[in-house]
Amino acid sequence: MTSQATRERDQAEGNGAGGVYILGGAQTDFARNWAREGLGIDAMMAEALHQGLEATGLDASEIETAHIGNFTGELFCGQGQLGGIFASLHPDLSGVPTSRHEAACASGSMAVLSAMAEIEAGRYDLACVLGVEYMRNVPGQTAAEHLGAAAWHGREWTDARYLWPAAFSDLIDAYSEKYGEVDYAHLGEIARINYENGRRNPFSQTRNWSFTPESFTEHDEANPVIEGRVRRNDCGQVTDGAATVFLASAKRARAYAEKRGLKLSDLARIEGWGHRTAPMLLSDKLKEGRNTRYVLPQVQKTIAECFGRAGVGDVFALDAIETHDCFAMTEYAAIDSFGITAPGESWKAIEEGVIAADGRLPVNPSGGLIGLGHPVGATGVRMMLDGYRQVTGRAGACQVEGARRVGLLNIGGSTTTIAAFVVGAAI
């Protein structure tokens, strides 16, 4: 059976990822500082939930199960048990089963995968997935220390003031050792593209930021070094934010569409997924790659498995990609892992304009983590929402013309937890 026929069969029968649909959702404005407004993590969750319900026309009473993605609620605001907070956001949510998922920056994707699994198992037909992170209520140094919990405590980058910039500086070194020196001009161009894309996004944390041409160069005043080879404008943002998506079985999606006079093709569908966990230490990850063509083979394998499930034989069958860019180097590493170029040749896609907003395969039309913002537990959910927006023509000024299929890559830690998805327009 051909991959297309398989997808159509899965859609008809509700099997596998082919039977999981995205009804829509919402996200908060990532430029907001909720602590300055005197609001807590519960208010952020409430806004994402209620705006998501409004956007989809769903009632809270229709939610059968909920999955919460969050990394550091206990560290940043002393709050755990976020499922109980979710159940407190509307009277009709009391009694709804909830789960909270933590996998550093991939927490939101773990929530998505768990909701998918419940739908595929036939337990529930409609799931709410909500990702949230409350991070701007503490000084930057404290935030960096809290986020360091995604590394192996006491064993990695113990001398670094800013742990994660140091980690991805080491990744630059690893790429340079394997393939030849990484040119900072290429990293600067990745950052410039993502900030430019973010300017078009009404939810972007950086949409009103200003830059000069020197901001994306090795100019020590306009773009100072943070750690090692990582500079300020290479870095994703410390962001407050939440995002919600509603996932449904094929049966529930049809009923949802019919009730609203919609076609099934007005919705989106998760066509494929990949999920792997690499060893915790970056040094161990790099050892795994020494005898392979890739620096980070687990990332490439996750994408390949996702593409296999989705029936994607060539990355250029996609119309856009939303990828993890906690640092410019993270996106640089994703380019060849996706197969946009051969291993070690990510620079070619940058120089040739392939990943630009008007390129052959736009990457991060939303602005990504650098341009849009990175509320850690919400990022995977936000990516899924942006995939839905793109393939249903609802991405506004960020829309890639004619987009019908989008790839997603979300990682946690130094690519410890890796999740990939393909989101397509429902047939």
Summarize model confidence as the mean pLDDT: 95
Largest sheet: 9 strands, mixed
- Unreliable stretches (pLDDT < 50, length at least 5) are 1-17
User: Which sequence of SSEs, written as H and E, runs from N to C?
Assistant: HEHEHHEHEHHHEEEHEHHEHHHHEE
Strand-pairing-aware structural class = alpha/beta
Number of strands: 11
Side by side, the strands of the main sheet go: 3-2-4-7-1-8-11-10-9
Q: In one word, what is the shape?
A: globular
- Any idea what the radius of gyration is? 20 Å
Query: Which percent bin holds the helix content?
Result: 25-40%
Give the terminus-to-terminus CA distance: 18 Å
Question: What percentage of amino acids are in beta strands?
Answer: 15-25%
Count of discrete alpha- or pi-helical segments spanning 4 or more residues: 15
